[in-house]
Amino acid sequence: MKYSFLGGLFLFIGVLFGALASHALRDQLSEKSMESFQTGVRYLVYHGFALLILPSIQELKQKTKNQIGTLILFGTLLFSGSIFLLATKDLHNLEIGFLGPITPVGGILLLSSWGLLTIRLFQNRN
C-alpha cells in the first residue's frame, strides 16, 4: 500500500474539513461539537504526516511498516471518522449512536501503531 499517498489524502481531507469547520460549520455546530470536529481534524492531520514519513524510516522492515500503516489507516478512519459523524449528527439526522464506542477503538488502534513503532525502533537501535 502506498502510505505516502494515503498521508497526502489524509492531509488534503484534514485541510478541507478544517476549512469547512471554520467557515461553513461555524454557525451550524455547538461549541462542544465544533471542538470535537476540530479534534477529528487534528488527528487526521497528525496521522497524515505519520503516513507520509513512514516509508522513509529505514530502521523498519517493510512488514513492520505495513503493520503500522494499517493500524494508522484504520485507527484514523474509525477515530476521526466517527468524531466527524458524531459532531455533525444534528445536521444529518442519521442514526449513529452505535458510533460512540467506535471512537475509542480507533484510538486504541492509533496507540497500537505508535507502540509498535516505538518497540521496533527500540529493538533496532543497534
Approximate shape: elongated
Tell me the Rg in angstroms.
Answer: 16 Å
In what range is the share of β-strand residues? under 5%
Q: Please tally the β strands and state the result.
A: 0
Mean pLDDT: 94
Sheet with the most strands, sense and barrel status: none
Helix proportion of residues, in percent? over 70%
Low-confidence stretches: none
Number of domains: 1
Task: Count every helix, treating DSSP H or I runs of 4 or more residues as helices.
Answer: 5
| SSE succession | HHHHH
Structure characteristics:
126 residues; mainly alpha; 5 helices; 0% strand; elongated
In short:
By secondary structure, the protein is mainly α. It is built from five helices and no strands. It has one domain (3-123).
Kindly describe this structure:
By secondary structure, the protein is mainly alpha-helical. It has one domain (3-123). Helices cover 76% and strands 0% of the residues. The chain is built from 5 helices and no strands. The chain has helices at residues 3-23, 31-53, 62-87, 89-92, 102-123. Helix 1 (3-23) runs antiparallel to helix 2 (31-53), helix 2 (31-53) packs antiparallel against helix 3 (62-87) and helix 3 packs antiparallel against helix 5 (102-123). The protein is elongated and about 55 Å long. It starts with a helix and ends with a helix. The mean pLDDT is 94.
Write the layout of secondary structure elements.
Layout (H helix, E strand, L loop, with lengths): L2 H21 L7 H23 L8 H26 L1 H4 L9 H22 L3
